[in-house]
Every structure is written in C-alpha cells, then in structure tokens.
TrEMBL record:
Presence of keyword Kinase: no
Residues annotated as domain ABC transmembrane type-1: 160-350
Pfam family, one: BPD_transp_1
Any one GO biological process: transmembrane transport
UniProt keyword terms in alphabetical order: Cell membrane, Membrane, Transmembrane, Transmembrane helix, Transport
Protein's name according to its UniProt entry: ABC transporter permease
PROSITE patterns: ABC_TM1
Similarity comment: Belongs to the binding-protein-dependent transport system permease family.
Transmembrane helix found in the keyword field: yes
Transmembrane segments: 20-43, 162-188, 195-217, 223-242, 273-295, 330-353
C-alpha cells in the first residue's frame, strides 16, 4: 500500500511538473509569499504600513524623483531587528520634499517642494539644534505616489501581505470546518447527515459577500475579523465534496475490514478515509484561495475590510478608482493588476493539480 501510494504521488508530481502554467503559477505564488513575509525589508518606505505621507507630492507619475530632507526626531524608539523586518519601522523622523537646498557653515537653507511651477519661501535649519544632523537624499518613486503622497510601490508590497495571508487563514478555517462536518455527514448519514445538510443549504443560500459583511459587522472591523469572516463562509463547498467522497469510500472493502477489526470511527475517518479522498479537496482549496482574495478585496473596497492606514490592494482601488477619469488610471490599475495576477495564479495551479491528481489520466 505504501509503495503504491508513493508511486501515485510520484506520478502526480511528474504530471504536475509537465504543466508549464502550473509550475509557473507555483513559482509566482512562492515569490508573492516571500514578498509578503519580507515586504518591509525590500520596500523603499519601510515605515509601519508604508504610511509616510507627503501631501506636496501627491499623485505623482511613476518614476518621479525628488530630494527629501529628513529631520531626525528627538524621541527614540526601541525596536529590535525582528520587529522592524516583519512589522515595519516606527519612524518618527520628519520628511520634507524640497526643491532646493544649500549648506552654509552650520545651517541648511532649503525650499519646500511645491507643484504647479510655484516656489516656496526659503527656510533654514541649524545643525547644532539636533543630536543627529538632518540630511538630504534623493527619493525615487518607481510606481509614483498616491493621493496622500505615499510611495505606491511600498504600499503594493506591504498590501500583498493581506491578500496573500487571507487565503491561507480562510482556507485553513474552511478545511477544518468543512472536513469535520462533511466527514460526519457522509460517514454516519441519517439524522446527522440531514442536520448538517440543512446547515449547508442554509449557508449556501445566503450570498457570500452579504454573509461575510454580516459576520464582519458582528465581529467588528479589523484585520483578523475579516480573515475569520471569509473563512466561515467558504466551508460549505468543502463539506459537500467531503461528504460525497466519504459516502463513496465508506462502502469500500478496506473500510469494511477496518470495522471488522474493531477500529473506532474516529480512526477509520481520519486515518483511512480522509487520506484517500484529499485530491478533490486540494483542488477546491486552490480555488478557495482565489475566492478569498477577491472577497477580501471587495470588503476593503466597501470599507469594511482592512482598516486605514493598513495597506490593502482592495482599499487602494477604493481610494483611487475616481482617478481613472482624472488622467491617472495607474493608481487604481496597478493594485487591480496585482489582484488579477495572484487570483489567476491560484486558478491555474488549481487546474494543474486537478489534471495531475486525476486518477484516470
């Protein structure tokens, strides 16, 4: 049995490797996962939620460059390296976009950046007033800036974390609930099956987005509340598939033998039936990843998903969708393309897994 299982696994793996789009999607998802984990390490703006605002340079085109005067804060923050890498730097320094600067002796003279060809009045800073001297660097905004003057590239990188991890949390919750209820319904049948199927049909009859909104309002707005709400609406499909597979598998000879040997129902379900019916569940999980990303984006667009200033692709579209008709469509199109590419990757890998795990082929 072990050799046969290993050979079937090896065969499925070989078939998956021959699927170009499946392998490409898998590598793309791994890349997005690494970006999500180390977003603050690679983001130009590594402040918490990439939320450094510069209203004077709002809505600038991709490739925009400007000199940035950084005035160090007198208040120090105690952050370890782990906290900075994974949760962002608590940056209290003041950043000022400038169009001109000149250093004379112990004084820095500068003019703040003003768009529209206007010129600001000259200001100055005395270095001796600070423990750490202010400094000027040139900042390059690869994707431009949003309507608050924040770096779009940094917001995209940090926002990938929500869209990526909501898939994992939502799918995990849906698998736990769906496999448990589906297994009980399929194995025991009768009244247990009737009650669980009634619950599945009631849940399925409610529009997904409406149900998520109701759960979110009940749990409250927030990061983890959205994850739980999405997960609690995606278990019904898993439960239906598991129920059907268990009903078919429980009549097999090896299950009859397990019952004759006196094995308990728990062992028969979780050690003998479930390992043999996981192929369709894996395929559904890949599709649920994509669905979870779309649902979260829809919630953020409606304003009940991840709350500001937290970066989210759906929230970025909500903030800038009106810029499509104002000559700056990239502000909404860039996060939209990110959502589309990630969802497509999960759908393609789901199709590749379906072909690889298909026993008849």
């Amino acid at each position: 049995m072990s050799r046969e299982s290993n050979s079937l696994t090896a065969l499925a793996l070989q078939k998956f490797k021959r699927n170009f789009w499946g392998v490409f999607s898998f590598l793309f998802i791994i890349l997005i996962g690494l970006i999500s984990v180390f977003a603050y390490v690679i983001a130009p703006d590594n402040s918490v939620s990439a939320n450094q605002m510069h209203l004077s340079i709002h809505s600038k085109n991709p490739g925009f460059k400007v000199d940035m005067l950084t005035v160090p804060s007198i208040v120090s923050t105690n952050q370890n390296a782990f906290d900075k890498w994974f949760f962002g730097v608590k940056n209290l320094d003041e950043e000022i976009p400038i169009s001109y600067h000149n250093i004379q002796n112990d004084t820095l003279f500068y003019k703040e950046y003003v768009s529209g060809g206007l010129e600001a009045e000259e200001k100055h800073i005395v270095f001796s007033d600070f423990e750490t001297k202010p400094y000027v660097t040139q900042k390059h905004f690869v994707f431009g800036t949003d309507k608050y003057g924040r770096d779009m590239l940094s917001r995209i990188l940090v926002g990938a974390r929500i869209s990526f991890f909501i898939g994992f949390v939502a799918v995990f919750i849906s698998l736990v609930v769906g496999i448990l209820l589906g297994s009980l319904a399929g194995y025991y049948g009768g009244k247990v099956d009737a009650v669980i199927m009634w619950l599945i049909n009631v849940t399925w009859s409610i529009p997904t987005l409406l149900l998520v909104i109701a759960i979110t309002l009940a749990l409250g707005k927030g990061f983890w509340q959205v994850f739980i709400a999405v997960g609690l609406t995606m278990w019904v499909e898993v439960a239906r598939v598991v129920r059907g597979q268990v009903m078919s598998a429980k009549n097999m000879q090896y299950i009859t033998a397990a019952k004759a040997l006196g094995y308990k129902d728990f062992r028969i379900i979780f050690k003998h039936i479930l390992p043999n019916i996981m192929a369709p569940v894996i395929v559904i999980s890949a599709a649920n990843f994509a669905a979870a990303i779309l649902i979260e984006s829809g919630l953020s667009f409606l304003g009940i998903g991840a709350q500001p200033p937290m970066a989210s692709w759906g929230a970025m579209i909500k903030d800038h969708y009106n810029y499509i008709i104002l000559g700056k469509p990239y502000l909404a199109l860039i996060p939209g393309l990110c959502i589309m590419s990630l969802v497509m990757a999960f759908m393609l890998i789901g199709n590749a897994l379906r072909d690889a795990l298909e026993v008849k082929t």
